[in-house]
Write a structure and sequence with these properties.
With 299 residues, this protein is α/β, with parallel strands linked by helices. The protein has 13 helices and nine strands. It has two domains: 5-163, Rossmann fold (3-Layer(aba) Sandwich), CATH 3.40.50.720; 170-293, N-(1-d-carboxylethyl)-l-norvaline Dehydrogenase, domain 2 (Orthogonal Bundle), CATH 1.10.1040. The protein has a six-stranded parallel β-sheet, sandwiched between helices. Helix 8 (167-195) crosses helix 11 (242-258) and helix 8 crosses helix 12. The radius of gyration is 20 Å and the shape is elongated. The structure holds nicotinamide-adenine-dinucleotide. The site of nicotinamide-adenine-dinucleotide (NAD) has 27 residues, from helix 4, strand 7 and helix 6.
Length: 299
């Protein structure tokens, strides 16, 4: 029979991910600082405990899905953190999107306790988390990849080994920087076309059969009414929050600065998403940049 898997952070992504572990027959032991987010999982049979140390006391495989770097540091190294109780030989997988330098620090601290750390951030969003179709980008010791894969395939369709610890985060940060730039580009292009008198559906169709085509134009179009089943058709609710995108662009900037890499469009995208957060878009899906660009629309 399968042994208990720990899960810490039952938010928009973590909750459906933990549910998929249960579905695959893994007993789950979980915790979240926000008790309300534990209820549903408890009803589904998961054991809920007070803090990460108690998770580590019982489970020797633990997945964390937390908002950002400070939360991961707290959950690993805090007074009731995982590392207070971690068992030798445990496998700790962090799927949060955080600074790769923090992943490396957590790996060193985990290794000191005789356990293994891997970074395994995801792409795919809440829909893919629910349907078990996430893509995991995994960094860490290659010999441990098979053990991580066993759990991650319960929650994802693609599990890709990227290299040493931190490289999963690197892949994730690069993807999201391009996604942010592409979404802003698509939004300003669609807006210009509309002002030039083009029907937005027709313009999207033409872009999608031409060289301007991208994921933001053909799968996640930001213009209300162009596509069904995307946040732009639903007041930009759900999806991937502008605040989380701003965080990921900030991570891209930090890593670019550390490596002296020019990322002019990534930098501008970061500023645009930060301005949006300050103007009330923080909780809306990041495709709402289309609406933001139209705020000056003249009647
Ligand atoms: P979320 O804010 O919905 O969930 C995070 C959860 O962590 C919350 O329930 C919170 O209470 C809990 N938490 C925070 N600090 C804690 C602590 N010290 N101990 C225990 N629990 C704690 O965030 P999310 O949307 O689930 O995203 C999680 C991560 O995944 C982020 O890094 C995000 O960038 C990344 N991500 C999100 C999406 C998406 O579409 N939402 C897609 C890909 C990647």
């Amino acid at each position: 029979s399968k042994t208990q898997v720990g899960f810490i952070g039952l938010g928009n992504m973590g909750k459906p991910m933990a549910k998929n572990l249960l579905k695959h027959g893994y007993p789950v032991i979980a915790t979240d600082v926000f008790p309300e987010s534990c209820k549903e999982l408890q009803e589904l049979g998961a054991q809920i405990v007070d803090n990460p140390a108690e998770v580590a006391d019982q489970a020797d495989r633990i997945v964390t899905m937390l908002p950002s770097s400070p939360n991961v540091i707290e959950v690993y190294t805090g007074p009731n953190g995982i590392l207070k109780k971690v068992k030798k030989g445990s496998l700790l997988i962090d799927s949060s999107t955080i600074d790769p330098a923090v992943s490396k620090e957590m790996a060193v601290a985990t290794e000191k306790m005789g356990a293994v750390f891997m970074d395994a951030p995801v792409s795919g969003g809440v829909g893919a988390a629910s349907s078990g179709k996430l893509t995991f980008m995994v960094g860490g010791v290659e010999e441990e990849f098979t053990a991580a894969q066993e759990l991650l395939t319960c929650m994802g369709a693609n599990v890709v080994y990227c290299g040493a610890v931190g490289t999963g985060q690197a892949a994730k940060i690069c993807n999201n920087m391009l996604l942010a730039i592409g979404m802003i580009g698509t939004s300003e292009t669609m807006n210009l076309g509309i002002r030039l008198g083009l029907d937005p559906k027709l313009l999207a169709k033409i872009l999608n059969m031409s060289s301007g085509r991208c994921w933001s134009s053909d799968t996640y179009n930001p213009v209300p009414g162009v596509m069904e089943g995307v946040p732009s058709g639903n007041g930009y609710q759900g999806g991937f929050g502008t605040q989380l995108m701003a965080k990921d662009l900030g991570l891209a900037q930090t890593t670019a600065t550390n490596t002296k890499t020019p990322v002019p469009l990534g930098s501008l995208a970061h500023q645009i998403y930060r301005m949006m957060c300050a103007r009330g878009y923080a909780g809306k899906d990041f495709s709402s940049v289309f609406q933001f660009l139209r705020e000056d629309e003249e009647e």
